[in-house]
Amino acid sequence: MSKRRVVATGIGCVSSVGIGKEQFWDGIVNGRSGVRRVTCIPENMQSACKIAAEIRDEFEPAKYMDFKTIKRSDRFIHFAIAAAKLAVEDAAIDLSKDEPERVGVVIGSAAGGFGSIEQQFRVLNERGPDRCSPFTVPMIIVNMAAGWVSMLFNARGPNLCQVTACATSTHSIGDAFGLIQRGDADVMFAGGSEAPIVALVMAGFASARTLSTRNDDPERGSRPFDKDRDGFVMGEGGAVLILEELEHAKARGANIYAEIVGYGLTGDAYDIVAPCADGDGAGRAMAQALKQGGVKPDEVDYINAHGTSTPVGDVAETKAIKKVFGEHATSKKLMVSSSKSMTGHLLGAAGAIEAAVTVMALKHGIVPATINLENQDPACDLNYVPKKALHNQNLRYAMSNSFGFGGHNGSLLFKKYED
Fold this sequence. Notes:
The chain is α/β, with parallel strands linked by helices. 33% of the residues lie in helices and 17% in strands. The chain contains 14 helices and twelve strands. The strands form two sheets. The protein has a ten-stranded mixed beta sheet with strand order 5-4-6-7-1-8-12-11-9-10, with helices on both faces. Strand 11 and strand 12 form a beta hairpin. The radius of gyration is 20 Å and the shape is globular.
């Protein structure tokens, strides 16, 4: 029995660059940075890093859910619900026409409800244990983004939550791809959400000296592959893709963005935070995705890199790409860019927001830029599409990479849709 083909038919994005597919893609194509000074953390609780890709008043939860849901759920859940609703709207899919048992959800988060943890701990300290919300646990546990989406859309099929640090939503999309491919579902919500711009998370990353402290120039703080990069910039938001079995999508006349053809996942087995210096685990994930898709390295036109803007990570990923793609990469034919230069690093939601960028790049023939790449690191010597997007590109295959603390690696391989 041949494996079923899987396509992406809906995109829902919530980010500091834009909310909704159109606004988000416009920001990405035009190199708009979503990084600004932090406003949601009191100044006396801010760390050495005072910048983030924060979503401010432009996000109104009441547009996507009722007041009761807002009060009973954390901000990371709000992002997931909004992204899922935007994805359904974009896909123009009527889920009431599907068997609920054939519709599933894989939505993950790296951190979960840290905002609610902080809030309820303050209540505990200031007002006592009896005043903590009875919804504290379902507000903070990581699986509740997937749980809420499944309930709101009556999705009774596979319901999973990945938690693999910054590889979370790449793994979510890969797992959803596999579930449809082997016949366990026809439609899947796949993605991730994250709301980590809170005092404790920012302080923890700042103490580890992983965050940029370019506080006086926020928009230029995230600068992957640049010699002067000094760490990543925290981001927040969520993204959900609607994935469908190809014949299911064709039967309803769906708009198809791209086809998923490969998925690789590996472990570094090396360090709790640092990647292998030679990029071994990352390289094996990319090679697995190529093998599963039956695609040769020189057939890939574009890679949306993990590209976090950290000194070690960017070099390791560069080495991994060179090892897997060889002369195709070193000759600069392979285009590589990091949209984190605009969105910041959304942790568990990064893979989903970047998969959205990748499939839209294939659909529109536009390769997004790595903004702020002004002084390229000699150790990062690939074609990173600096400063401005490239239009009118003939793209056939594109890859999206995500690598997380704990040595979790994931790569997704997409193909321009051809009937």
